[in-house]
């Protein structure tokens, strides 16, 4: 199980800097996801790990060994891209066998035995004689996965492998990928722009923005304790407030937010144990829609409701308070067109 380390990676193209100061470590056997909006540098990071593209500055290490100048064919990585990229004129078995072009089959197996084993692993036994166009999109991606896994790579790299599939198939295939990854214990780096997918499948994830890493953590850490305003808004929905510390006791800050509402514009927010904020400091905090609660006794403010989206079991409500949008989640839409909500100081997160 190979660990991957990126140390101070910068990647400049002629007309753009794609990555700047990217440092992160992927532990051996981990399912690690790079998530972020289009253009933030996910694919460039993955290509740098693969050896498909060399960094302008910085070092890539596999198990502590500098592989920055090692070409892709010598890194023992398996890569699956967005498009299926199967050879249409080859059978499924021939496509999988192509994954063995640089190496002998592992464990003394013949190539045929290895292909059969892989088709079994991705749940496509008996499909070896088919041509790719006789398979569904999801099945084709499983063949691409089998091909990438053929040489028993140290590292599996997946670049939005499901972006061409419909939502239901994506969910099915991501569970399948997770099962296979756990069965093999292969260090895996997965690229997606879909934050929900990133939370669902990863041991840990890196949230990327504008060529840099905003936060690395487990799904729970990133969701519950976003480090930056970008992470707070990109990973799940959030209500982000900015303001000035005007007072507070040891474990709570009183914050006057920028919105100058006639009432309730001073909020109480729990201060972390290591908090060093003083009166006059500018701060930003966020409150999840699920934590804005009509029953909450503290931090109450009125929301003028605008639109409601029924999501099955829960309703997302958009509204307005003091000229800004507020997002709520309630089991059912209220009958009235305005609503008092509040939040517990402990449910607000200082960024
Ligand atoms: P997407 O989700 O859209 O694939 P991404 O997060 O994977 O985006 P990258 O493909 O890594 O982002 O691109 C990061 C930045 O680098 C973008 O601004 C992109 O235009 C630029 N870039 C990537 N490859 C090249 C290239 N070969 N030449 C010039 N600029 C490039």
UniProtKB/TrEMBL annotation:
Residues 4-235 form the ABC transporter domain. Signal peptide: none annotated. GO terms for molecular function: ABC-type tungstate transporter activity; ATP binding; ATP hydrolysis activity. Keywords: ATP-binding, Molybdenum, Nucleotide-binding, Transport. The keyword Magnesium does not apply. It catalyses: tungstate(in) + ATP + H2O = tungstate(out) + ADP + phosphate + H(+). Its EC number is 7.3.2.6. Its main location: membrane. SUPFAM superfamilies: MOP-like, P-loop containing nucleoside triphosphate hydrolases. The keyword Protein transport does not apply. It is a peripheral membrane protein. GO terms for cellular component: ATP-binding cassette (ABC) transporter complex. It is found in: Cell membrane. Part of the ABC transporter complex WtpABC involved in molybdate/tungstate import. Responsible for energy coupling to the transport system. Belongs to the ABC transporter superfamily. Sulfate/tungstate importer (TC 3.A.1.6) family. PANTHER family: SPERMIDINE/PUTRESCINE IMPORT ATP-BINDING PROTEIN POTA, SPERMIDINE_PUTRESCINE IMPORT ATP-BINDING PROTEIN POTA. The complex is composed of two ATP-binding proteins (WtpC), two transmembrane proteins (WtpB) and a solute-binding protein (WtpA). This is Molybdate/tungstate import ATP-binding protein WtpC. It comes from Halolamina pelagica.
